[in-house]
């Protein structure tokens, strides 16, 4: 399946197809120096598949995990390109999850003021969310994604077969992001996820439908000035749960716990049902009092209110303003029983 994301500069194609990684050279120009960036948790068969199609390919491997999304790894990628004599006409290819895509994309954005970036995402979260939209960056000064750039890839290649080696917990947290997009914007995607009897067979259609939502949102709001905030459904409370839990839960798992708080009773029931089907917890494990310090420190809460996304019925949403009192009600309506 071929999708396209229009950007102010033009746009880029997104291929979603089983086995697509083996066709990378026909989908993107690999006939130049190419630095394939990947982490040590990703099966090397995926970067091997890309390197075997490059005229002059090099691999850069960094230790897996968010802790590597930092200035040191970023600098090491740039140093490697300098050492190898990369010029403005060469390219960076990310083969990995959101961490790899964010850091490799930022290195591509910065090297010689920008060289071509090709993204081959291999986690469900990165396939249906982070690979599209142009956000790249690193964590800095103890703050996630605090340094970065909007920089679009020239091509995204999504091969759902790469998910076969992904840990089930990571697969399901990625699915939470698809539920998030479906709940606000696409009742038929919601029904597909809720009714699926074979996730492996349906995953390609789920990725494509979620990407269509993401593309539509980022085309209307490339730099997150308005509509793009719809992608934050479940995030205000999800982020507070993530911080309070101190790393116990993955990001998507926290979004799952945050979403039903921000929905009408009937929509919350439907969201909980689909999340629980995939083993995702759908209620806050913490009372408001434990989350309050993180909610009050949310940088988006500057004026005492935060814009939240509320789902009244599946497939539609509205932005609401909420202060600590309103958030307290939302959370306490959805506590772990
Ligand atoms: N740019 C954006 O718009 C955007 C959006 C959402 C999230 N993000 C960022 O994405 C990051 C999280 O991404 P993630 O959840 O993909 O995590 P990740 O990149 O850390 O990958 C998770 C783990 O899965 C392993 N892995 C990746 N692909 C695999 C495969 N096919 N088989 C087996 N193992 C595999 C990796 O080695 C890693 O240990 C965060 O840093 C977040 O800030 C960016």
Provide an overview of this structure.
There is one protein chain. This protein has 337 residues and is an alpha/beta fold. The protein is built from 13 helices and 11 strands. Helix 5 (124-130) runs parallel beside helix 6, helix 5 (124-130) packs parallel to helix 8 and helix 6 (168-185) packs parallel to helix 10 (251-258). The longest helix has 22 residues, at 199-220. The structure holds nicotinamide-adenine-dinucleotide.
Topology overview:
Elements lengths: L1 E6 L2 E7 L7 H4 L5 E7 L4 H8 L4 E7 L8 H13 L7 E6 L1 H13 L5 E6 L2 H7 L4 E6 L2 E8 L4 E4 L9 H18 L1 H9 L3 H22 L14 H11 L5 H8 L6 H13 L10 H9 L9 E5 L7 E5 L1 H9 L5
Parallel strand pairs: 2-9, 3-4, 3-5, 5-6, 6-9
Antiparallel strand pairs: 1-2, 7-8, 10-11
State the shape.
globular
CATH superfamily of the largest domain: Dehydroquinate synthase-like - alpha domain
**Kindly state the mean pLDDT as a whole number?**
95
Helix content: 40-55%
Runs in which pLDDT lies below 50 for 5 or more consecutive residues are none
When the domains are counted, the total is 2
Summarize the structure.
With 337 residues, the protein is an alpha/beta fold. The protein folds into 2 domains: 2-165, Rossmann fold (3-Layer(aba) Sandwich), CATH 3.40.50; 168-332, Dehydroquinate synthase-like - alpha domain (Dehydroquinate synthase-like, alpha domain, Up-down Bundle), CATH 1.20.1090. Helix content is 43%, strand content 20%.
